[in-house]
Amino acid sequence: MNRGIYPGSFDPMTNGHLDIITRAAKIVDELIVAVLLNPKKGTGLLSVEERIAVMKEATKHLENVKIDSFSGLLVDFAHQKQARVIIRGLRNGSDFEQEMNMAQINSSLLKGLETVFLMTAPEHAYMSSTAVREIVCFGGEYEAFVPPAVADKLKINKMRGR
């Protein structure tokens, strides 16, 4: 089985992420979207559990997509899941430089692991999770930038004062 992993913090998942997931799901037999548990980043806008829940909802129409989480090295997670491909989305040239370095490190740590870069669709190239977090924190309109399940969860959290 050709299994791929699309890793990230996804805080929150954007329409750009969903576009990459949808396209990547067409190139592998199974795609694991892996939410990174990164203690350096603090709690984030959504908890890891909330991110997983909204991502499952947003991708439920994609039968070969699984949502999971991991901590530690991506190569260890890839080895554990017997994945041969890492999927990375690129918005611009600076993304490429950073991702190329990581791809080279990962392939040196786990032989046979390939990284596939997918260019973000032009309509999503300017938006990032960081920008969405800032828009949310300052009370702006973010709904056009995230899947409906994410927007609903953010609204619920806002009503709860989180």
UniProtKB/TrEMBL annotation:
Residues 5-134 form the Cytidyltransferase-like domain. It comes from the Bacteria. It is an enzyme of class 2 (transferase). One of its GO terms (cellular component) is cytoplasm. Its cofactor is Mg(2+). ATP binds at S9, F10, H17, G89, L90, R91, E99, H124, A125, Y126, M127, S128, S129, T130. The record marks H17 as: Transition state stabilizer. GO terms for molecular function: ATP binding; pantetheine-phosphate adenylyltransferase activity. It is found in: Cytoplasm. InterPro entries: Cyt_trans-like, PPAT, Rossmann-like_a/b/a_fold. The keyword Iron does not apply. Its EC number is 2.7.7.3. The keyword Nucleotidyltransferase applies. One of its GO terms (biological process) is coenzyme A biosynthetic process. It catalyses: (R)-4'-phosphopantetheine + ATP + H(+) = 3'-dephospho-CoA + diphosphate. NCBIfam families: coaD_prev_kdtB, cyt_tran_rel. Belongs to the bacterial CoaD family. Homohexamer. This is Phosphopantetheine adenylyltransferase. It comes from Cellulosilyticum lentocellum (strain ATCC 49066 / DSM 5427 / NCIMB 11756 / RHM5).
